């Protein structure tokens, strides 16, 4: 794993702790929000992710996070067959495996953050239990893994 520290690139983690290493990959707000939008809202193009971001992500931040997610093997980037100048981002199996983590974060926020309310697909998946979550992940595999080759 390589991360930028100032002008130097560090090729190892700060520690051998698995939580630390996971945070080095996913630990900033924007990375998780980009993954959220790909997983739960099916935003697969740069422009969709940029203009429909509820949090207002800047284009340079989005480009950096997408590049990082591709580098980490969480998503793939391929040419969109419907438009020569567009790329389409697809989840890898590694990216799909993040769904339970995202759902647990959503459930925690729903329970412990008073201004937060679990809505939409996240609520449906929570109420649907493990079977519905497994079905959702299978649907993601069909849509994303086929697209990424």
Arithmetic mean pLDDT: 87
Radius of gyration: 16 Å
Query: Which structural class should the secondary elements be placed in?
Result: mainly alpha
H/E series: EEHHHHEEHHH
What is the molecular shape?
globular
Q: Largest beta sheet, briefly?
A: 2 strands, antiparallel
* Oligomeric state of the chains present here: single chain
Distance between the termini: 24 Å
Number of helices: 7
Beta-strand percent range: 5-15%
Helix proportion = 55-70%
Count of strand segments: 4
Low-confidence segments, given as residue ranges, are: none
- Major sheet: order of its strands? 1-2
Protein name: Transcriptional regulator
Pfam families: HxlR
Domain HTH hxlR-type: 17-117
Keywords: DNA-binding, Transcription, Transcription regulation
Structure description:
It comes from Dyella nitratireducens. This is Transcriptional regulator. InterPro entries: HTH_HxlR, WH-like_DNA-bd_sf, WH_DNA-bd_sf. Residues 17-117 form the HTH hxlR-type domain. The protein has 149 residues and is mainly alpha-helical. The protein has helices at residues 18-26, 29-40, 46-51, 59-71, 93-96, 99-112, 120-145, and strands spanning 3-5, 8-10, 75-79, 87-91. It is 56% helix and 11% strand. The radius of gyration is 16 Å and the shape is globular. The chain starts with a strand and ends with a helix. Helix 6 (99-112) packs antiparallel against helix 7. The strands form two sheets. A two-stranded antiparallel sheet has the order 1-2. The protein contains seven helices and four strands; from the N terminus they run ββααααββααα.
């Amino acid at each position: 794993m390589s991360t930028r520290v100032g002008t130097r690139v560090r090729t190892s983690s700060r520690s051998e702790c698995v939580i630390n290493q996971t945070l080095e990959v996913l630990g900033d707000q924007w990375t998780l929000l980009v993954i959220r939008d790909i997983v739960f809202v099916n935003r697969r193009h740069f422009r969709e992710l940029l203009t429909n971001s509820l949090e207002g992500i800047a284009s340079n931040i989005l480009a950096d996070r997408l590049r990082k997610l591709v580098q980490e093997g969480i998503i793939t980037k391929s040419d969109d067959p419907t438009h020569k100048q567009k790329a389409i981002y697809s989840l890898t199996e590694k990216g799909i495996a993040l769904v339970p983590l995202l759902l647990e974060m959503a459930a925690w926020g729903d329970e412990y953050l008073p201004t937060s309310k679990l809505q939409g697909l996240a609520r449906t998946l929570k109420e649907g239990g493990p079977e519905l979550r497994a079905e959702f992940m299978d649907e993601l595999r069909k849509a994303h893994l086929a697209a990424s080759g």
